[in-house]
Amino acid sequence: xxxxxxxxxxxxxxxxxxxxxxxxxxxxxxxxxxxxxxxxxxxxxxxxxxxxxxxxxxxxxxxxxxxxxxxxxxxxxxxxxxxxxxxxxxxxxxxxxxxxxxxxxxxxxxxxxxxxxxxxxxxxxxxxxxxxxxxxxxxxxxxxxxxxxxxxxxxxxxxxxxxxxxxxxxxxxxxxxxx
Length: 179
Known about the structure:
By secondary structure, the chain is mainly beta. Helix content is about 15%, strand content about 35%. It has a 6-stranded mixed barrel.
């Protein structure tokens, strides 16, 4: 990938409440913390696609956040291996978009607004991802180590209406486990 493509991939266009904001990083520009924002019934533009959030069921919960990258230590696969860079949903893993979740808690295809990080899509899972644990895909092992472990992070989960999913899992905070 040449520098021009890398720069274009790093630009994220987001429409929040009728205002278009541009960011030169992967994270979506946000004006207020999640707790101060009403994102229900809002249209957003992220990841090259428009999302009408009124078409999603919304739940909010506290999650454990960690980070991973596409190296062999994180995924068990090396470049050239079959399935390298392919998520559990069959999409190409992309930093700034992909997160790994427990699909029993957050269904694949759900949009997530992670306080302090921005918008992500539930596209992957992993052996250590159980319960209220989200693994954020980052560019390098070093960035994953710097990211560290963040406990009790507020996450707003937007579940597509077409999914037959019980909201019990996020509401029941007794299931939160920090391994």
